[in-house]
Amino acid sequence: MDAIKRITIIIPSLSPDDKLLSLLADLRETGFAHILLVNDGSSAEYDSYFTAAKTEYGCTVLTHAVNQGKGRALKTAFNYLLAECPECIGSVTVDSDGQHRIADIIKVAQETVAHPEALIMGCRDFSPANTDIPPRSRFGNVTTSRVLRMLCGITLSDTQTGLRGFSPQAMRQFMKTRGERFEYEMNMILDAKENDIPLIEVPIETVYIEENRTSHFNPLKDSLRIYSVFAKFIASSLSSFAVDILLYSFFCWLMSTVLVPDMPMGNVILVATFAARILSALFNYFVNRKGVFKSKGDKGGSLLRYAVVCVVQVCISAFATRELYELLHWGETLLKVLVDTALFLVSFRVQRSWVFRSK
Known about the structure:
This protein is an alpha/beta fold and about 350 residues long. A seven-stranded mixed sheet has the order 3-2-1-4-6-5-7, with helices on both faces. It is about 60% helix and about 10% strand. The protein is built from 13 helices and seven strands. α2 links the parallel β1 and β2. α4 (about 70-85) packs across α7, α10 (about 230-260) packs across α13 and α11 runs antiparallel to α12. The chain is elongated. The chain folds into two domains: about 1-215, Spore Coat Polysaccharide Biosynthesis Protein SpsA, Chain A (Alpha-Beta Complex); about 230-355, no CATH class. The chain has helices at about 1-5, 20-30, 45-55, 70-85, 100-115, 135-150, 170-175, 185-195, 220-225, 230-260, 265-290, 300-330, 330-355; strands at about 10-15, 35-40, 60-65, 90-95, 120-125, 165, 200-205.
């Protein structure tokens, strides 16, 4: 129970209702001594809730003049604790809608004290056996978990949980994480992977009050923000892929019908693959560096690392396409599409974690 006295509870809140006051009462009754509430631009009609939080429950209340998003609210809280509360040994973020049970908050607080090097995640059960989860929540979380596992090598059962534990060093690190709204919590996970911060899962009860109708999460708009880096990479890859395939088809035609019509088709495939990939790779590098990963690191270093990845990838693409052609005798363009599609997932992981790494 020592963790209860030494951990600060952070609650970002927009347009709260009575569930917020019930949560504060339960936290105080349990013994949590430090509660930090962030009013993220709620209108004046909600002032009574924040006044009660200060006067009746002894909370510290920080206020945004206008709504800036959950990500900004969390950064505001982290900044306050790091700048004004040097005695704070960690924090636990809790949603204001009452969907996090006190017993689970205590478990996350205890793990935060025990593992200051990690990001503690209170994870819900999204297995098919749990029938109490709204369909949109199950679909969104399961889909995101699979995407993270495939593209980033991150295995996490609950990617959208708001119940998380942070040590002071973790708060300092995540102050630098991009994102102002719901995408910020996803970006935290990606930055944890990139900066070798362990992710520790704490099983918690799965609770959806009124099927989560009070949530401010917009399924379409906020999902686009969460998946923005994936969407940009896909768009970049597709455009580069189109350039590569067009050049490849052109070089195959040019060599086999105009320049060296007697060259074996297997060799034509190799030469055309290398020539097309060099040109499309230069296009892809600049698009990914500026538009996708927004790398601010050493340009020469990232270009060299990208070149290494391209050499390895083009070798695999060329030789795999040739071997499949000689084995299956399918169209060479179709085979190249299949091979390069298989290389896509690996390419994202390598580029994010190595080529355009922020460290």
